[in-house]
Amino acid sequence: MTGEPAAKPPEAFIPLRRNDLIELCLADRGFDGSAALQFREFCEILAAFYHFRAHAQLERLKDHYAPFNPDADTCPLQAPSAGELRESAEILAGEFSQLLRLANYQPLSQQELEQAFAVTSLIPLRTKVDFDDFDRVLFFFRGEGVEELTLRRLWRKNRTLAIDNFQRVAVLLKFREEAHFAARQKRIEDLGFVPGKVYLYLYKNIPRNDLELLFPNVQVSMNWKDRLMLVVPALGAAIPLILKVLPSLGLLVAAILLVTMGPEITERFGYQSSGSKNLYAVLVAVLSIGVALGGFAGHQYTKYKSKRLMFLKKVTETSIVRLGFCWASPSANS
Fold this sequence. Notes:
Layout: H1 18-29, H2 33-65, H3 82-102, E1 106-107, H4 110-117, E2 126-128, E3 134-151, E4 159-175, H5 178-183, E5 198-207, E6 219-221, H6 224-245, H7 249-261, H8 263-268, H9 273-276, H10 279-318, E7 319-321
Antiparallel strand pairs: 1-3, 2-6, 3-4, 4-5, 5-7
C-alpha cells in the first residue's frame, strides 16, 4: 500500500550449530542405518569443501591486508608501490564485503551512520566523528533487536528505555595518509591510530545510537548541560566577589603597583605607603576567593572527566572478539 514502509526481508541466518542442524535433518527425513551414515559423510565432505574455500579467501584477505596492518611484526621482502597499495586496498575492501555478505551481514551506509550519530547517546556527551579522516568506511551488521534498559534515578521514578541494538557489527576503516593529518596540524603521536593503515573490528550488542563509539577518531566534549553546570555556578559565585572588590578597585591597583614598582609609584598617584602596606590583606582575601572558585571549577571539570571515562569504559566493554588477521583497540580523543 502506498505510504507504508517496505517490510524488511527476513535475515538469512539459521541459529543452530552445524552438528545440531545435521541431526535435525536426519530426524526430519527419518534416516537411519546406512542412509544416515551416507548423509553424515556427505555433510563432512560439504563442510570440508567450504572450509578450504573459506581458508583460501582468508589467505587472500591476509595477503592484501599485510601492507595496511598497524600491528605488523613481519617485514615485506619489497616495499609495495603506491599503485600496488591502491590495488590491495580495493581488493581488501571487496573481499571483506563479500565475506560479510556470505556471513549474512548487511551494509549500513554512511548516511545511515550519520543519522545514528545525530541521535543522543546513552551517555550524554557530545561526540563527533570526522569522516574526512577516512579513505574508506565499511560498516556491516547482522541481527537487530530491542533491549530494555532501566535507568535508576535517585529522586525520581526509574525510567525504562527501549534500546535498538545491532547483535553483531563488523567495521573496516582505512585512514588517510600522514600528510592529511599534518596539513590539519595534528600531532601524529596523539591520534590514537596509524595514518594510512586499515583497522578491522568485530563487536557484539551495539546500540544503534552509540555507533560513534566504534570509531578510533571519535572526539568527546562537554554537552551544553555540562557547560552550563560548569559556568553558571561559577558566575554566581564570581558576581558577589566582583561586587565586593569593585569599590576597592583603586586599592587593588595600588597594591599591585606597590608589589611590582615599589612605594614611590603609589605615592605619585596619591596613595600613602603606610596605607598601601595594609593592602596585602586585600590581595590575600581575593587570592583565597579565587582559589575557592578554581576548586569549584576543578570539581565540575572532574565530573565531566568521570563522564568521559564512562564513555571510554563503554567503548572497551563493546569489543569482544579479536579477528584472526587484525586487531586494534579503539580510543577516544578529547
